[in-house]
Amino acid sequence: MAKQHAYRDLKLCTKDCLCLFVCPTGATNTETGQIDFEKCIGCGACANACPSHAITLVPNKMPPQQKKKDTVVKELFVIANQKIEEIKVLKYLLKNTTQESEKRLYKALIHSNKVVIEDLMRESGYMLPQSKISNDFLQSLTKGEMKEVANQLLEKIEIND
Ligand code: SF4
Ligand code: SF4
Questions:
Q1: Going by fewer Cβ within 10 Å, which terminus of the chain is more open, N or C?
Q2: pLDDT per residue over 34-53, tens digit each?
Q3: Confidence of residue 29 (pLDDT cuts 50, 70, 90)
Q4: Looking at the whole model, is its pTM more than 0.70?
Q5: CB-CB contact of 126 with 93 (8 Å)
Q6: Which residue, by CA, sits nearest to atom 7 of ligand 2?
């Protein structure tokens, strides 16, 4: 089995179809636009050919998550909480302004803060799908309303640590 597979970012794809010509297995030619995981042998020809850099090669097995010290996780949460408070203020400002330029600015800052929080959570070990902590979380969902989705994800995601 290939060690890596190609992934196409549909937002970047300009549909010039070079990847269709170079792919030796036909994996790039699908109705959904997603590369066929089963057919892809990870040769990388499509990624090299794509003028829009829309294709990335993704390793099948992600490296194990590095353990963070409790003190580091604690500090990451402190920063995340500060960002949450900033978002609350920005939402208040957004609600109370009539200026279009200010609205755009506050929306952009809210989005930026959310991205930072997401990164902090990932750094803290909460969002890597292959990590034990995510696996435990999915396991906890298998008894409730989300059990079908949780079981499907558990089947697909190989736990790494
Ligand atoms: S070569 Fe790149 S831009 Fe062209 S169809 Fe393939 S993925 Fe899309
Ligand atoms: S990596 Fe190779 S086999 Fe896989 S989709 Fe790209 S060209 Fe086809």
A1: N
A2: 999 999 999 999 999 999 99
A3: very high
A4: no
A5: no
A6: 23
Report the Cα 48 to chain-centroid distance in Å. Answer: 23
52 in contact with ligand 1, CB cutoff 6 A? yes
d(CA 153, CA 129): 9
Question: Is ligand 1 within 6 A of the CB of residue 19?
Answer: yes
In contact, 67 and 12? CB cutoff 8 Å:
no
Average pLDDT of the chain? Answer: 88
Spatial separation of the C-alpha atoms in residues 144 and 88, rounded to whole Å: 31
By the 8 A CB rule, do 6 and 42 touch? yes
Ligand 2 atom nearest residue 49's Cα: 7
Query: What is the C-alpha to C-alpha distance for residues 2 and 105, in angstroms, rounded to an integer?
Result: 45
Q: Percent of the chain, pLDDT > 70?
A: 95
Residues 83, 84, 87: CA angle, nearest 5 degrees: 85
